[in-house]
From TrEMBL:
The protein's name: Ubiquinone biosynthesis O-methyltransferase
Gene source species: Thauera linaloolentis (strain DSM 12138 / JCM 21573 / CCUG 41526 / CIP 105981 / IAM 15112 / NBRC 102519 / 47Lol)
PANTHER family given in the database record: METHYLTRANSFERASE (PTHR43464), UBIQUINONE BIOSYNTHESIS O-METHYLTRANSFERASE, MITOCHONDRIAL (PTHR43464:SF19)
UniProt gene name: ubiG
InterPro entries assigned to the protein according to its UniProt record, in alphabetical order: SAM-dependent_MTases_sf, UbiG_MeTrfase
Sequence positions that bind S-adenosyl-L-methionine: 39, 58, 79, 123
Pfam families named among the record's database cross-references: Methyltransf_23 (PF13489)
Alphabetically ordered keywords of this record: Methyltransferase, S-adenosyl-L-methionine, Transferase, Ubiquinone, Ubiquinone biosynthesis
Highest taxon listed in the record's lineage: Bacteria
Length: 234
C-alpha cells in the first residue's frame, strides 16, 4: 500500500501528471526553476557540496539534484513518482550529469543506506506527505554523524494561506490550483521539534519571499510563508 510508505497516492499522481513539463521553465514548475539558484547557493554555502555524497529526497524531475551535481557533488535522487524519475533520467542525456535516481521512499532507503550521505536535502516535499515527522526521521538516519540536512516547506498561518494558496494558485496562477493543502503546512516550531526528536540540531532558519512587483525571490528574515531550515546530525 502506498500509505504504508508515507505517501499520499493523490499527491504522487498529481505530480506524475505534470512530470513531462518539469524542465519547461515557463510551466507549472517555473517557481522551482526561479528559486533553485537561491536555495542551491544557500545549501552550498553551508555544506560545501563539491566532492560530497548528497541525497535529494523527493527529487521530482531533478532540478535541484542537477544543480548540486553541477557544483561537484555525487548525487542520488529518490522519489515515488516513476514518471518524474523518468523525466529526470532523460534530462541527464542533455545535461551530462551522473545522478543515481531511484524509485524508493526515504524510510525504505534509510534502512538500505543508513549514515551514508554527507548531505541530505528535502525541499518542497514535507507539505505533501501524510507524516512529515517520519520523513524527517528517515533523513536523519540517512545522513552521516555531523552531516547536513536541509528542509524547506511552507508556514501555517493566515498570511501563508493568502499568499501560497489564494495568491499563487488562484490570483497569480503561479501554481496549479490544488497544489497545496493548508492543513499540511508546517510551522517552523513544529519542524524544529520534529528535527530535534530525530536527533538533528537546528542551525539556521531563513525565509524565502516573493516580490510580485519585481517578480523576484529573495532570502531573508521573513519566514511567514516559505522558509528553509539547516540542521546537522549530532
Amino acid at each position: 500500500m502506498m500509505n504504508a510508505i508515507n505517501a499520499d497516492p493523490a499527491e504522487v499522481q498529481k505530480f506524475s501528471e505534470l512530470a513531462h513539463r518539469w524542465w519547461d521553465p515557463a510551466s507549472e514548475f517555473k517557481p522551482l526553476h526561479e528559486i533553485n539558484p537561491l536555495r542551491l547557493g544557500w545549501i552550498d554555502g553551508k555544506a560545501g557540496l563539491a566532492g560530497k555524497t548528497v541525497l535529494d529526497v523527493g527529487c521530482g524531475g531533478g532540478i535541484l539534484a542537477e544543480g548540486m551535481a553541477a557544483l561537484g557533488a555525487k548525487v542520488t535522487g529518490i522519489d515515488l513518482s516513476e514518471k518524474a524519475l523518468s523525466v529526470a533520467r532523460l534530462h541527464l542525456f542533455e545535461s551530462g550529469h551522473g545522478i543515481d535516481y531511484r524509485l524508493v521512499s526515504a524510510e525504505a532507503f534509510a534502512d538500505e543506506a543508513p549514515g551514508h550521505f554527507d548531505v541530505v536535502t528535502c525541499m518542497e516535499m514535507l507539505e505533501h506527505v501524510p507524516d512529515p515527522a517520519s520523513t524527517i526521521s528517515a533523513c536523519a538516519r540517512l545522513v552521516k554523524p555531523g552531516g547536513h540536512v536541509f528542509f524547506s516547506t511552507i508556514n501555517r498561518n493566515l498570511k501563508a494561506y493568502a499568499l501560497a494558496i489564494v495568491g499563487a494558485e488562484y490570483v497569480l496562477n503561479m501554481l496549479p490550483r490544488g497544489t497545496h493543502e493548508y492543513a499540511k503546512f508546517i510551522k517552523p516550531s513544529e519542524l524544529g521539534r520534529y528535527c530535534r526528536n530525530a536527533g538533528l540540531d537546528v542551525h539556521e532558519l531563513i525565509g524565502m519571499s516573493y516580490n510580485p512587483l519585481t517578480k523576484a525571490y529573495s532570502l531573508g528574515h521573513d519566514t511567514d510563508v516559505n522558509y528553509l531550515l539547516h540542521t546537522r546530525r549530532g
